[in-house]
Structure formats: C-alpha cells, structure tokens
Amino acid sequence: MQKNLKYDIPENIRKKISELKVLGPTSSYAYGYIQANLVIIDKNFAFDFLSYSMLNPSPCPILEVLEPGNPIPVKTATNSDIRYDLGKYLIFHKGKSEIVENIENYWTKTKVTFLIGCLFSMQKQFEDSGIYIQHLNENKIDPTFISNIPTNSFGIFNGPMVVSMWPIHKNYITKAITISSKLPSVHGKPIHIGDPKLIGIKDIEKPDYGDTIKLKPDEIPVFWGCGITPQLIAQQKNIDMITHHPGNMYITDLKTNEMEII
Amino acid sequence: MQKNLKYDIPENIRKKISELKVLGPTSSYAYGYIQANLVIIDKNFAFDFLSYSMLNPSPCPILEVLEPGNPIPVKTATNSDIRYDLGKYLIFHKGKSEIVENIENYWTKTKVTFLIGCLFSMQKQFEDSGIYIQHLNENKIDPTFISNIPTNSFGIFNGPMVVSMWPIHKNYITKAITISSKLPSVHGKPIHIGDPKLIGIKDIEKPDYGDTIKLKPDEIPVFWGCGITPQLIAQQKNIDMITHHPGNMYITDLKTNEMEII
In a mutagenesis test of the A interface, which of B47, B52, B174, B182 is the best target, namely the one with the most A β-carbons within 10 Å? Predict the structure, then answer.
C-alpha cells in the first residue's frame, strides 16, 4: 500500500495514474472518496445496458452515464479524461481480452461510458466505525466470486452476479449493514451474509478474481454485488466492451459521505 | 374520495379502471402501494431519456423500464397491461396534446415504457405517522408547480423541474423528511422546504397542475420533485410522448414499505 496516496486528493492521484507514475490496485487510494467501475460500450447497446443496470442495482449501481463520444465526466470528476485516468484497462473484443494502459486508440464517437460505484468507496466509513478490513491491511485486492445468483435480464444482458467478499467480525455485522445500506450508489447493503455455499461458492479461499483472504475466527463472510458482473457478461456473450482491470478503479471527486442517502 | 377503493388491492382497482368503472385521480386508492407516473417514448429516445432520469432522480425516479414493444410490466405488476390500466392518458404528438382512455391505437413495437415513482405512494406512511394530508381529506389533487430549478440535461432532454407541494405542520417537518428519504424510488427526500419564491413560485395558490391548497396556520410548504416533469419537456421540445393524465396514476403491486431502502 502506498501510504502517501491514502490521504491524497483524487485529482493528484488521477494525474499520477495517467502519467503511469503509480499503478496497481487503487483500493487504499483517496480515502473517503468514491471509486468507480468502468464500462464502455457502443451506443447501440447503451439503452439495454442502462436498463439492465437499473434492474440490478446491487452489482451495477450507476454513478454517471456520459453522452456518446464524450470521455469527460460532468458529475463524478470534471477535470478528468476516462481514456487515460485509470491504471489498467481490459478490452473485450471479438471474444478475446487484452490489458492496456490507456484507451486512446480504442475510442470512437459511438462509445458510451458508464461509471458504476465500487465497494472500495466504503473503506474509510468502515474503518472509522471500527470495522477491520483485512485485504487493506494485507495490501491485497478483495476476493470476488461468480455466484449462482441470477441477475435480471434486459435485452442481450444477463448472467450470474459477481460478488465481493469482505470478512466482518461477528460483532460488527449490523454496523456494516447500516453503513452500506446508506450508500446504494456504491453497491448498498450486502447481497448475502454467512454461508458461501448458499450462493453457489464452493471454496471461499478460491476467488474467481482478486486475492485469497482467509477468514479469521469470529469473522463472518459478507457479500456485496460487484461491478465485475458486466465483464463476465462481455466474456460470456462476446460483447465488445472496454472496462477497468479488476482492482484498478476510476477515482472520482465525489466524497462518499456526501453520497449517503439518509 | 371513493372510500371503498382506499383499502382495495391494486389488481382489483386496475381492473375497475381498465373497464372504466372508476376514474379520476387515484391519490386515495390502494393505500400503502406504490403508484407510478407513465412515460412512453420511441426507442430512439429511450437511452437519452433513461440517462436523463438517472441524472434527475428527484423528479424522475425510475421504478421499471420495459423492453421495446412490451406493455406488460415484469416487476411492478405482472397481471397488467399498461395500455388499458390507467384511467386517463395524455398523448403528446406533433406539438399537440389529447386525452384518451386507453392507448391501444397508439401502441407500436418501438414504444418503450418507463414507470416513474409517484409521491402518492407515501400517503399511508405519512398518515400512519400522524402527518395530516390536506388534499386527501379535501378530495383534491395535490398542487404542482413549474419551478425555476433546472434539471440536468442529457441528449434532447432538459428543462425546469416540476414540483409537488404538500403542506406539512411545522412539528412534522423532520418526520416527513425521514419517511420520504427512505423512499428514493418514489421521489425521496424533499427538494425544497419553506419559501416558495426561492424556487421561482410566485403564488402558492396558483398551481400549474392539480388543485389549489391553502396553507393553514402552522403549516410549511414542502416540495418534492414531480413526475410531470417529462410532460413539460414533451410540450416544450415537441417530443412525441404518451403519459398518464396528471393525478391518474398507474397503481402497482409493490408495497411502499418494501421499497424502503433502509
């Protein structure tokens, strides 16, 4: 973890990321600010994807949608360009995927950008409330799993929900629910609490994405919807899509506290 | 107010409405259930309108979006047909408007239906908490006004926000905020509380839509975003749109309590 970036402001961090001066997972960066998943698709699919996201607010809470061809956010961060300001991108094209450092060469006037809330945004709220976050302290990416929870389909978009798992001490479960329920724009309340098998996860120490986190005694696995869900759909349906590389989020200027809904 | 419909179930009421056996404002019907504004537009504008709605969750909280050509909701009420189950519809076409009792003759395979939460959905929660609702007791439609609050634009959609005003006793303001904040899907927290002039309303007794409600001593005007906002855009921009007639809402099978977000 780069300690100096934990309390740095988003604009500085985005600049360092775009200049490739800092890379890697952003989970510990810009503490207290909203981080976002990225989905870029052609405008022909934009209505279907946005409708799909609205039907599935747990994995796909929409923070912002940009007009076709516009890579400059107007709400989440104005002094920014989506094409450069993430550390690593994943390009899904004709059934194959590729990792790149910027998407200048992939940008067209028909590209529509969706920014989707990320659970990293809650880290400060959790720690301020005494909730220990193991993956942060171990400098890891939180583990995410392909669950057996079906998402609601719309148009060509459907498939199982990808979920993130954070181990929470048994005495802090209620607090974790209360904090996250107030933040629907960054996944909101947990989608499942307890036995992983009930949502189709056979081995909690073998995540589909991210790092392995071992549960400690007195910890319960708590699961939230995960913004990697659209990436899985892109793979399964052969849909052309540009996304962030897991863990390498877009850091916005929005403060998490300001996004609380009550 | 038809007392017998206050506690009847949505399915029965929709049937009576579709058979034209009961008409008029639905504000006192199906107490405790979610009511919805209707917007139907061509699929060419569907992405822009949905993005616009997401940028403006106060006047346009989306409850459900139907696939192009489908008039049967899958989430808000399955045993229902949008074309018949509202009492009165407004057709905006080539800059003119017309009131009709069903939209069978206007339906096409490219029509996309949006259901947008309505403040009527909070009536039971308010009354259960001791909040007096004047327009219900006087058998009126709540007054709505064209404010000077600009909405956030997307594509061709933009314009001022239409707001609903409910007078709230000064001792119940906090309670009204708490109840409505938990229900973002039916407009959520107030958009303004107090002096109407601060949001461009010159005369609180001259609403642009609905009935006049006189404030009693000890009452404060409280304003929420209103789902008539898209109708104003249709008029101002000459966009073809099918909507409900103000006050004649779509009554869903969703219980308001179940839509509370925390």
Answer: B47
